[in-house]
Amino acid sequence: QVQLVESGGGLVQAGGSLRLSCATSGRTSGTYGMGWFRQALGKERDLVAAIWGPGGSTVYADSVEGRFTISRDNAKNTLYLQMNNAKPEDTAVYYCAASGRVFRNAYYYSKQSNYDSWGQGTQVTVSS
Questions:
Q1: According to the model, what pLDDT value does residue 53 have?
Q2: Closest CA to 12 of 92, 107, 112
Q3: Is 74 left (phi over 0), alpha (psi -120 to 50) or beta?
Q4: What number of CA atoms fall less than 13 Å from residue 15's CA on the CB side?
Q5: Which ranges constitute the DSSP H helices of 1-128?
Q6: Is residue 43 scored above 90 in pLDDT?
Q7: Beta strand extents in the chain (DSSP E only)
Q8: pLDDT classification of 31: cutoffs 50, 70, 90
Q9: Which residues of 1-13 are buried (b: 16+ CB within 10 A; e: fewer)?
């Protein structure tokens, strides 16, 4: 089992930047892919970005492509999400997730059902 703890959420003005972190502990050696998902009030939880494999392949939601960057520091067992040019529609609870499943295709890492462990979430609010 992998434990995940998000941090870095808060209030930011539109156009500003924020960096989310996700510290992992436990059986991290079995983690192959990790992702950031978000859930806005009254909406379903959706993929923001995912990263997997030794080469660090990535996939992004169209709405954040070019503005957000997912990365990981394996030495620190930490996943990051750099959010630039934030927009009010980015307001949501952001969750990190870990998957021990090996896929070669971005499609599978975009599905919540393929993740085994989840953090508790961190609120991001973007003011206009």
A1: 92
A2: 92
A3: alpha
A4: 1
A5: 106-109
A6: yes
A7: 2-7, 10-13, 18-26, 33-39, 45-52, 57-60, 68-73, 78-83, 92-99, 117-118, 122-127
A8: confident
A9: ebebebebbeebe
